[in-house]
Design goal:
By secondary structure, the protein is mainly beta. 8% of the residues lie in helices and 46% in strands. It has an 8-stranded antiparallel beta barrel. A hairpin with a 4-residue loop joins strand 2 and strand 3. The radius of gyration is 15 Å and the shape is elongated.
Length: 196
Amino acid sequence: MFTLPASGRIRSTALPAAAAVVSLLAATPQVAAHTGQKLVTCTVSTTPGRPITLDPPVSMTVRRITARATLALTHCTSPNGAHARLRSGWLTAHGTGLGSCTNVDDISATGRITWYDAAKRPAGTSVIKPDHSAIEAARSVKSYNPGDMLLGGKVTKGRLAGASVAGSAIPTSDITTCTTTGIAAVTGTGKISFIA
């Protein structure tokens, strides 16, 4: 449940804020039944000492939350071989939303990936922005995981420009404290794909 995306506004209901913001920072909104060809697929995760930060902490009180993250993209592969040079990357994301332990609304975010090749040399960048039509379509699919609703979007500039972005992730830190002490930081891991 991450999201790495961009400047635009998304409305979501019944989406736990901790999971949503992690979602908000790892991939970007997608249509559940995308039929395009996968260009690149990576593991996406927080790294030790670099959780997704939430300010103020997410709690039972609805308030505007600012989330920031630097996420690692590793084990990247290109199923069709066209983008085999992209082997890893760093995704930086920043977003805001009205959130609480039970939902998050009015999300606005931006994300940028710096790519690296197998020798850890820079291999370009990608800018990702939300795809609002994909988010709306995903809401109508009953089997779609609402925690992943924010994990999709479009690469608007740079490497893989025009590709859709789809992902899902799960928190790896304890989010049960949301209703008591609140959550100021979250860790997680999952997958992200770039689809033609």
